[in-house]
Design brief:
The protein has 104 residues and is mainly alpha-helical. The protein folds into two domains: 40 residues; 34 residues. It contains two helices and three strands; from the N terminus they run H-H-E-E-E. Strands 1-2-3 form a three-stranded antiparallel sheet, with no helix packed on it. A hairpin with a 6-residue loop joins strand 2 and strand 3. The longest helix is centred in the N-terminal third of the chain and has 36 residues. The N and C termini lie far apart (58 Å). 0% of the residues are buried.
């Protein structure tokens, strides 16, 4: 005897909801433990960790700046691929349009 599609679908949704609830419970317990461990480490350790976190901001900004330069082609040494327009490639040297998958 085959199961009805509605029952199969609702069972799948129920299992997904149960899995989500289990994952959220584990995540909440892990978060609570992390907060407890950080709080228990003392003010001095928390202050030093905060300073190290702030020290990482300039590094993050530098990496994003360098990534943006590479994306726009400002950092020499390579050429950006031609732009794709409606699955057609517009080549830099010439007015010819060719499908994106075809060879030149």
């Amino acid at each position: 005897m085959q199961e009805k599609p509605e029952l199969k679908r609702s069972t799948g949704l129920w299992m997904a909801a149960r899995r989500f609830a289990t994952d959220m419970t584990i995540a909440a317990l892990a978060f609570a433990y992390s907060v407890w461990a950080i709080t228990g480490s003392g003010r001095d350790t928390i202050a030093k960790g905060f300073v190290l976190l702030l020290a990482g901001i300039p590094v993050y900004v530098f990496v994003k700046w360098r990534e943006g330069r590479r994306r726009t082609g400002e950092a020499g040494g390579f050429e950006l691929p031609p732009p794709v327009v409606d699955e057609m490639v517009v080549y830099k040297h010439g007015d010819e349009l060719q499908p994106a998958g075809s060879a030149r």
